[in-house]
Amino acid sequence: MAGQQLALTVLMGLVLVGVAALLTRIEDWRRYTALAGGAVAVGEESGYGHREKPSGVIRWLTTVDHKDIGILYGVFALISLAVGGLMVMVMRFELLTPASDVISPQLYNAFLTSHGITMLFLFGTPIIAAFGNYFIPLLIGADDMAFPRINAIAFWLLPPGALLIWGGFLIPGIAPSQTSWTMYTPLSVEQAHLGADLMLLGLHLTGVSATMGAINFIVTIFTERGEDVNWANLDIFSWTMLTQSGIILFAFPLLGSAIVMLLLDRNLGTLFYAVGEGGGTILWQHLFWFFGHPEVYILVLPPMGLVSYILPRFAGRKLFGFKFVVYSTLAIGVLSFGVWAHHMFSTGIDPRLRASFMAVSLAIAVPSAVKTFNWITTMWNGRIKLAAPMLFCIGFVSNFIIGGVTGVFLASIPVDLVLHDTYYVVGHFHYIIMGAIAFAVFAGIYYWFPIFTGKMYQRTLAKWHFWLSMIGTNVTFFAMLLLGYMEMPRRYASYEFDPAVAPLDAITLLHQAATVGAVILLIGQIIFVWNVVQSWLEAPTLTDEDPWDLKNDGLFTREFGWNADRLALPDGGEEEAMADGGEAEADQ
Amino acid sequence: MSVTTAIRGRRVVLVVYLVVVAIAGLMGTILGATRPDVVDPVLFGVFPLPASAFGMAVYGMVTVGLAVGVLVVAVSYVAARFDTHEPGGE
Amino acid sequence: MSEQVDAAGGYRRASPWPVFVALGFALSELGIFVGLYPVAVGGLLLLAGSVAGILRESDYATDVWRPLAGLGVAFAVLGIAVVGTQVDPTTLDVLAVVSDPGGIVGRGLAIAGAGVILLVVGLVGYLLE
Predict the structure, then answer these.
(1) Pairwise CA distance, residues A56 & A73, whole Å
(2) How far apart are CA C19 and CA A69, in angstroms?
(3) Helices and strands: H and E segment counts in chain A
């Protein structure tokens, strides 16, 4: 024990000394004058003045440029997507047969927990932050985000957060968390696995990161808009990012508090969630879902903004009913805080409370329906170009209708009491998360690929990616809806039911269909990764400043204008464009 | 630079509509053929249909066809009345 | 477009402090909640040092020593308050508490210890300059 403490102390001491030495080499923090790195001193300013970025790894570790941070978020998110996806592939292979024969139930539960946490907090929010960080300043005519250093802090909280969340798997000898992503008490208080504590800590870090990012977006959009960008002509993606940031501001601190209370209950003997002396186990559910429902709107509003932004471009016209889409977005933002107990219909809360939550849950379908209506109406009078971004947008609309309607069914208490905790719920939310949110993310990556990379992706591979994803999504998650109707419970590692009581054959067949669909999805994503990486590395540099023919329809927007300025520079983009405040980046 | 040709928006919406109705029919056929003992299609809650592949297919196609069809009709009405963008090419 | 400048008049494209703020915050939390006291103290030192660095870099402070000392005072107060929730001050046997800390008391002591170190470093640095 003492030896362990001593070793840790020495290690920490070495880390601190190492950090101090590194910092002294890079910065003269005592007087802040220029030192190493070839940096140019600008008056009293030191280190990296406004003319230079360092090169190599140091550049990525120290950047506060919103575009670099966007790329960091994006790479991090896509790696997390791969990790979360591989976890669920193992789960789906386990579920091919009723018995628990591929992995142990404990490992299944651990993957179950981690798949959810990884996808929601390490892929969902960061990939949205990637798009937001890269493009919001460009779209609103700002130099950068309002707080560039806080922006960097927010990103750099994520890698330690991820390591902590996956810590249960990475550190030998400790058990990973098996609480499921919803971490219901009393199980989450009593489960002694150290992996659960690490996961909670990691989750707290990602929450702090999201909150910092949200503050940054709100202040930037409010105060850093260019002269010609006002509230009336603010683009739809910025509107959704603003609303999402508002939701994050009110929802994530609550998650952080609930997590801290849980950590205290687990480690320091407090009684927040204790039965009798404490708030009771249902306190956690209320706190968690007060965060948890706005969380799903945090995840879906910016992707809807992406679709509202991209779909019209490939229909050759402006979005129909822009104002209605904005009002719907704001309405969703407000209403999302009033529906949380629809996740708790079967917990025995007062029926009058349940009824009020049912009413608001049904009401919140209306603004989403308005948006869906507007997207289809935008297409109706348009001329559609079926490029990959557009295919994913149309797929979004189709999958969102299915996911949304199944959600409306679940909002009805009698139906929910039958379908709660079955695969129907899993199918419902995966239609939205995979079928809608991920599709919008793919649309955004393909649409802005020329700006991110200066190259064009391979079109045929992108179409394969779309069709495999579309078919895979619908096979997998429609099978899950049917499994739910057959009352297959969720979060089960095995399903060896007595065939006399439950239709085991049909359930097995549907699980196998879902696994086949998951394999189809996996192949599609492998093609996606191949396409992105290979095109980025080997495709010829794009010289066309308008790869999507936006000028033809009068839809050439700010971010492509910025990109055009960058391309027009004499060395073809090696230096950064003057458009963003006169910064020139020397390529070392 | 884009080489994809443009298709009229109405055609895309209608094709998607027909595909969705067809898939509803396909799912109905599969469910009706594999589990005739469990399914009990009642069209609009009023008209009982045979618990077979045919009955389920009809149920699916009529329900989905009507629901999404109403949506498409509403879209075309609203677009005709309120959409200032001219359809068709340049 | 408006030129966005910080208080010193330069527009920084890179800063080494954010990654260490994040690392310090992560290590502090890990140390405090899991009970790894060296990690907690080290993390708090890293966090406070990086925050002082950022404040100096963005010219909200004219030297690093006073922010360090200020953060030290804050942590010391917080740490003592945490210890105070568990220990009755009138019956306080300081030596016993310090030599065998555990649980909440240990964590409070770690925070207070980090605070004291920061305060000393801040004062010494300020006086030497």
Answers:
(1) 18
(2) 12
(3) 23, 1
Give A451's contacts (C-beta < 8 A, 6+ positions apart): A134, A559, A560, A563
Preceding peptide of A186 cis, ω within 30°: yes
CB atoms near residue B47 (< 10 Å): 11
Mean pLDDT of all residues in B68-75: 95
Say yes or no to pLDDT of C89 above 70. no
**By the 8 A CB rule, do A52 and A39 touch?**
yes
Using a CB–CB cutoff of 8 Å, tell me whether A580 touches chain C.
yes
Residue A436 · residue A477 · CB < 8 Å: no
E strand or H helix that includes residue B43: strand B42-43
Check if the beta carbon of residue A317 is closer than 8 Å to that of residue A553: yes
- The residue whose two tokens read 């060296």 is C38
Quote the pLDDT of residue C94: 63
Buried b / exposed e over A353-377, threshold 16 CB at 10 Å, is: ebeebbebbeebbebbbbbbbbbbb
Inform me whether the pLDDT recorded for B27 exceeds 80: yes
Angle between helices A2-26 and C17-34 (to 10 degrees): 170
Give the single-character DSSP code of A343.
G
Residues in chain B with CB shorter than 8 Å from the CB of A479 are: none
Which positions in chain B touch A482 (Cβ < 8 Å)? 31
Strand-pairing partners, residue B43, are B47
Cross-strand pairs, A422:
A489
pLDDT at A284: 96
Q: Which residues of A touch C58 (CB under 8 A)?
A: 149
B77 touches chain A (CB under 8 A): no
Closest CA to A512 of A92, A6, A100: A92
Q: Is the pLDDT of residue C99 over 80?
A: no
Q: Tell me what pLDDT residue A29 has.
A: 62
Superfamily in which the A55-300 domain is placed by CATH: Cytochrome c oxidase-like, subunit I domain (1.20.210.10)
Q: Give pLDDT, residue A6.
A: 85
The span from the CA of C1 to the CA of A224, in Å, is: 10
Q: What residues does each domain of chain A span?
A: 55-300, 388-542
* C76 φ/ψ sector (left φ>0, alpha ψ -120 to 50, else beta): alpha
Over residues C36-50, mean pLDDT: 93
Cβ atoms of residues C23 and A160 within 8 Å: yes
SS3 A15: helix
User: Rounded to an integer, what distance in angstroms lies between the CA atom of residue A155 and that of residue A492?
Assistant: 35
pTM for this entry: 0.91
Nearest alpha carbon to residue A132 among A388, A307, A303, A329? A303
Longest distance between any two alpha carbons in chain A, whole Å:
83
Share of chain A above pLDDT 90, in %: 76
The pLDDT value given to residue A583: 36
Whether residue A384 and residue B89 make contact (CB cut-off 8 A), yes or no, is: no
Strands (E), C6-127: none
A483 in C contact zone (CB under 8 Å): no
A56 contacts chain C (CB < 8 A) = no
R_g of chain A, CA atoms, integer Å: 25
CA angle A447, A451, A453 (to 5 degrees): 105
Does the pLDDT of residue B4 top 50, yes or no?
Answer: yes
What's the DSSP call for residue B86? P
A376 → closest Cβ in B34, B75, B87: B75
Give ∠ CA A447-A450-A454 in degrees, rounded to 5.
Answer: 165
Domain ranges of chain C: 17-128
Q: Which parts of chain A register pLDDT below 70?
A: 1, 27-52, 570-588
**Of A161, A51, A169, residue with least CA distance to A106:** A169
pLDDT at A532: 96
